[in-house]
Amino acid sequence: MSDQSTPDAVSSPEAATKGGFSRRQLLGTAGATGLALGAAGGAAGCAAAPNDENGAPTAPLTSVGSDAVMFHGKHQPGITTALQARGHLVAFDLAAGAGRKEAAALLRRWSATAQRLMAGEPAAQDDTDVARDAGPSSLTVTFGFGHSFFARTGLEKQRPVALDPLPDFSSDHLDKARSNGDLWVQIGANDALVAFHALRAVQKDAGSAARVRWQMNGFNRSPGATGRPMTARNLMGQIDGTRNPKPSESDFDRRVFVPGAGEPAWMANGSYAVVRRIRMLLDDWEKLSPTAQEDVIGRKKATGAPLSGGTETTPMDLDKTDTDGNLVVPINAHARITRPDQNGGAAMLRRPFSFHDGIDTDGVPDAGLLFVCWQADPLRGFVPVQRKLDRGDALSTFVRHESSGLFAVPGGAATGEYVGQRLLEG
């Protein structure tokens, strides 16, 4: 977990609508652009708007059901899209005997289904009706290729160098059965039923061409649950992701996306996703005092402000000392170690989900973070930061990396194309 934040969606007040609407009708309120617009649908049932810290009323909470994200575009959806309340990560392996032809047909089916569902429409075949009463709810479906995919399809010469397997880390306790995979799908939505509906459709579309290798389910705070947009908190109660690169920054695209003239050509405007299931040892963590927890992270638990002072966005003063000459931000604090300026400028766009998969037989919660980060090159993003964490991160005592995957996520599909078409038909 690094000290970076995911951009928050900005909500705006909208008028409430009356009566019941189909998913198609709800989509119509989102406008022809298909962008997330925060349209109406449930404001009438909301409580009065809370006041901000100055006593002024904030924008009322509104329905998120009609928010829609475009499927077609320069980049795939689900990378710069604001964090969603529910998520599913699922990896597939191609079936025995399936190759490039079957993979192309599968990506064509998946892309057509994703386009329909993200627009708030039912699946073309055998829709389950799970999301019949809901709008698009900011649904995104994102597709990627694992290292093994290229040998399975005879496309080894098109495999990117950046997709070489990640190095081993001392903190790894990886379950191979829940790691890697030929194909990877990320699903996110602001409604649990909409997310599940998409997951089920993707699984059904796989048919005989591919089988599920592993699946993980996650969640985040629901949009509108706070009086103003805020950086997310993780299951340790910490504000998680303050220094995420932002699209408004001049070097954002360079850090996150493969250039349009990059290599290989089919990865133009794509990105590389590192996926890690990170177990949080919550029983041990919660035995620490709040002050001790803040020393581990290097930030105030309540506000996310650096221990050196200021607000959440105040630059951290790494040299500041207390009256005894001790560093205010401990030398092994997580936020210090993960800073880009402490890692040769390495940065990645973190877009995680929390998870809780029940209680183990020994009474310990199986909970933590489904860590997903995006970068133009993992060797310049995730790898140097994780190596630094391996050498002495105070947080490492309280987390365990249990699964891992690296996936090449091509650029977005143009209208009339499917994701990966330039690879599979090039």
UniProtKB/TrEMBL annotation:
* UniProt KW Metal-binding keyword: yes
Alphabetically sorted, this entry's keywords are:
Heme, Iron, Lyase, Metal-binding, Oxidoreductase, Peroxidase, Signal
Query: Which residue ranges does the record annotate as region Disordered?
Result: 1-22, 220-252, 302-321
Q: Which gene encodes it?
A: efeB_1
In terms of superkingdom, the source organism counts as Bacteria
* EC number, as in UniProt: 1.11.1.-
Primary localization class, coarse: other
Q: Where is the Dyp-type peroxidase C-terminal domain?
A: 231-413
InterPro entries for this protein: Dimeric_a/b-barrel (IPR011008), Dyp_perox_C (IPR048328), Dyp_perox_N (IPR048327), Dyp_peroxidase (IPR006314), EfeB/EfeN (IPR006313), TAT_signal (IPR006311)
Its biological function? Involved in the recovery of exogenous heme iron. Extracts iron from heme while preserving the protoporphyrin ring intact.
Reported cofactor(s): heme b
Where is it located? Cell envelope
- Cofactor binding mode, per the note? Binds 1 heme b (iron(II)-protoporphyrin IX) group non-covalently per subunit.
Say which enzyme class the record assigns.
oxidoreductase
Q: Which reaction does it catalyse?
A: heme b + 2 H(+) = protoporphyrin IX + Fe(2+)
User: Would the keyword Nuclease be found if you checked this record's keyword annotation?
Assistant: no
Please identify the protein, giving its name as recorded.
Deferrochelatase
Q: What family does this chain come from, according to its entry?
A: Belongs to the DyP-type peroxidase family.
* Residue ranges occupied by any Dyp-type peroxidase N-terminal domain in the UniProt entry: 76-220
